[in-house]
Amino acid sequence: MRESAAERHDRLLGLVRERGSARVSDLADRLGVSPVTVRRDVEELAGRGLLDRVHGSVSWPQERGGGGTGGSGLVLGMLAPSATYYFAEVIRGAHEAAARAGARLILRISDYRPEEDRARTDGLLAAGAEGLLVAPGWRRPGDPAAYGDWIASLPVPAVLLERQPAAGSPLDGTDRVCSDHRHGVLLALRHLRELGHRAPLLMARDDSPTALAVRAGYAEALGVLGLRPPRDVIDSVPAEVHPDRFEAAVRALREAVASGAATAALIHNDVDAIQVVQRLAELSVRVPQDLALIAYDDEVAALADTPLTAVAPPKREVGRQAAGLLVERLGQGRPGRGRGADGEEPRRHLALLPQLRVRASCGASSI
């Protein structure tokens, strides 16, 4: 199977992280691609603040502004499932907040392999992490129970990122900072309803916590708005991984439009949404004339031929708030300051609200 750009980016980041710095030519040899490809990858990753470029070489970013007086000297560890797409902005936000606090942020990537999360976290602790930002590589509904309880017994303060464990589980008492995806879905459905559409159809993946939260939010939003779904949720898959299943999903959406069952849709995520719009056009379904469409994630939605209206989770702010909360926890050696009766400050579950960014694909004027 051909390696995706996201997978290559993660391998590149892993090599630079391990070495501290590397020449572009060496990275090309290790990755098995051309120097032109590596230079293009480096330019993109440097633009996101994930790498530094210096005269034909790249290096792992150094915290800026943290070496003067007032720096905390703290070392924060971060476990993320990916360093690209959605989590690139989360990492950037955490890096910025750590730098402002004079702390160093070190990173491990799980590549969405939850069975490796614990070992990678042990690596962060061995590297000197005094507190942890943890976004486990969960993908399926059973993963938190199978691969999550160990987080509650970590020997250092930890903050969960973009993950909501089951109520009553050992992790439910852990600090966490998350996007409120249910609110994001409600924003999308309410907007489409206000444009005069019947209940929008949902086309979504089921391979990440965000995807599962979008699905749950869809059912909840329909109830809030007093709507009935036009049909069952259409299961989406990456076109490059499962082209036959992707084609079947697009044709199911086309049939819903052709039959009059659906005039509007919400699609998770916006990479899939762009590809869906392209394929629908080949099948004579126009967006927004025949189908009003909203994407979820807003990573690349604005770059589509017809710019896509999208729900934008506050990814960078999630990273900033989580890192800030962790620094605060690590600095709570002082007495007093609003502590509970047991001498500890209350744990926090912070939910940040997504925004709806209106563009051409829903048929409404931009706001």
Automatic annotation (TrEMBL):
Keyword presence, Ion transport: no
Q: Keywords for this entry?
A: DNA-binding, Transcription, Transcription regulation
Q: Is Transcription one of the keywords UniProt gives this record?
A: yes
Q: Which residues form the signal peptide?
A: none
**One Pfam family from the record:** Peripla_BP_3
Residues forming the HTH deoR-type domain are 5-60
Q: Which PANTHER family match?
A: ALANINE RACEMASE, LACI-RELATED TRANSCRIPTIONAL REPRESSOR
The name of this protein is: Substrate-binding domain-containing protein
Q: Which organism is it from?
A: Streptomyces enissocaesilis
